[in-house]
Amino acid sequence: MKAGQVTHSDAVVDRLTDEIRRQGPVPLSDVLEVALYAPGAGFYESGGAAGRREGDFLTSPEVGPLFGAVVARALDTWWQGMGKPDPFLVVEAGAGTGALAQAVLKAEPACAEALRYVLVERSAVQRRRQGERVRLEHPSLVLPPVDADTQEPVPEAPPGPLCTSLAELPRVPNVRAVVLANELLDNLPFDLAERRDGGWCEVRVGLADPEVGASGLVEVMVPLDEARSALLDRLVPDVVDGARVPLQAAAAEWLRSALATAGSRGRVVLLDYATSTADLAARPADEWLRTYRSHGRGNGYLDDLGMQDVTCEVAVDQLAPIQALASDRSQAEWLRSHGLDDLVDEGRRLWTERAHVADLAAVAARSRVTEAEALCDPTGLGAFRVLEWTR
């Protein structure tokens, strides 16, 4: 770095420092909002992304096309269960650069002609890259038009699949939709609480004391408000001093919005690291509050702000007040329920038939075996939970 050059981290810290000087120690969620999403400086707005080569971490869609092929089968199952609606609206929240959408379309699902696929990604940088993977149309062509009198969708668009990209979840009246989110909620800003002297404190972020020769951002403990303290007392009745837990109000609000987007008889499907608040309280915080950079673990969550990803496992019981779950199973179980093993067997057969040729089709078929192992690894992606809500 050249002398005097300002890094993304410097820009994030300077912005937070100004805010703290104005209003005092701020909630961690405010810090993460700036560190991850501030225009031009946040991690996701300055090039941070999932990806095998240039990314900072690997998610299931980047393992290979098999994950998307299984998702395509799941979409067909849900489409058929809904009575084969046309249009069939699928909304992928946290779509990143479009890896999953690309794989789903390549799998050529039976619902393709009815499919209206909406990639939702708040990062403008990542939205601009989606067009490299899938053809994007104007939202007016993809989102189902609605009759002004009946408020019912009118299938006037040309046959699908049609894709578009938005910064926020859409809302189309009287449309049943599937909302997918793969590793999204773990990236939503959250607050942090710690048990102290038999009560709960909020871990806020303030400025180090320059009088003792310190600088930078530091943790500051303040009493947690009564409502959230009562919530944690209910969720974690037996807890020791020093235990920490996240407070995931943004995740709960996202679920509320996603259910509204799904509409009547729609579906919300979330794939992520997920557990209970009590489980998180029983574990060291650095096991579930993690940072990533260049395919490795990063530094502390207040270090290198804007230069590393910050994630938190999802506390499912904090989502329960929004709506009860319809299904909760491991990613490995979910993938197998939607035909993973059949696709792997088909890959083995194709490789056996075409191994002597060793063309791209044969190599891709053989790769399904290693992709399936990675997706179902109980110490890795296979340990993800797949949470489903139906309306």
Describe it for me?
With 391 residues, the protein is α/β, with parallel strands linked by helices. The chain has 2 domains: 8-41 and 191-247 and 278-312, no CATH class; 60-187 and 252-273 and 315-390, Rossmann fold. It is 35% helix and 21% strand. The strands form 4 sheets. The chain has a 7-stranded mixed sheet with strand order 4-3-2-5-10-17-16, with helices on both faces. A hairpin with a 2-residue loop joins β6 and β7 (199-207). α4 crosses α5 (99-106) and α13 packs antiparallel against α14 (360-375). The longest helix is centred in the N-terminal third of the chain and has 16 residues, at 8-23. Residues 1-6 and 49-53 have low confidence and may be disordered.
**Order of strands in the sheet with most strands:** 4-3-2-5-10-17-16
CATH A-level architecture of the largest domain: 3-Layer(aba) Sandwich
> What are the low-pLDDT stretches, counting only 5+ consecutive residues below 50?
1-6, 49-53
What form results from the Cα inertia axes? globular
How many helical elements? Answer: 14
Radius of gyration, whole Å:
22 Å
- Please state the structural category: alpha/beta
Total count of strands: 17
- What's the oligomerization state? single chain
Overall pLDDT level: 89
CATH class of the largest domain: Alpha Beta
Beta-strand level of the residues, as a percent range?
15-25%
Sheet with the most strands?
A: 7 strands, mixed
Distance from first to last alpha carbon: 52 Å
Number of domains: 2
DSSP helix fraction: 25-40%
CATH fold-type name of the largest domain: Rossmann fold
